[in-house]
Give the backbone structure.
Amino acid sequence: MQRLTVIFRKGEDARFLSHLDLTATLEYAVRRARLPVSLSEGFNPRPRLSVAASLALGYVGEAEILEITLRETVDPASVAVRLSDALPHGIDIISVKEGVAGAKTAASRLRSAVYRLDLPAPVADLSGRVQTLLRSSRLDVEEQRDGQVRRRDLRPMILAFEAVSPQALRLEARMDGEGSIRPEQLLTLMAVATHGVRITRERIVLTP
């Protein structure tokens, strides 16, 4: 068995692929690249590959993580070339590295995600709105889950938040068993319109 960690970009042309469609596209590319992917056990064997964290519809992902388990060893550089040739426009392979056998999966080591929010127009007091938000002891939002409305405090999920310009923000948000943040929720709390905002997940941070 060989575990590979693939870093890929989900670009502008692929940002409206759902998580399920993205996973299916990656699975098809692995088959098309003729990689000897390992299969799960059971009545309905599936290729052993997984995306570490789902990406919301409409977001760009600069450094997404795919893990693949192969049943025989293949040179990672060859895997990168073969996958690049098999993937559609908009999904680009950045790197392929061999993982450590027996190590925890990336999905079980999620710590946080760093996002960039590009607004359609400048907001003159954007930095002040961010500071006001961060001074709040609670940031309650209502979310629809399983047909019920649930209230949740987003403040503990924010690790870092800043205005990098009057038209752009950068957010680092926790990703763990408590869930995470949709960056649009913070814009709403700051009374900043979400229409036309472009959100990019710049990187995923894993625990050691």
About this structure: The chain has two domains: 2-103, 110-206. Strands lie at 2-10, 49-51, 60-70, 91-98, 110-118, 140-145, 148-153, 158-165, 168-174, 198-206. Residues 19-32 form the longest helix (14 residues). Residues 2-103 form a domain with the Alpha-Beta Plaits fold (CATH 3.30.70.580).
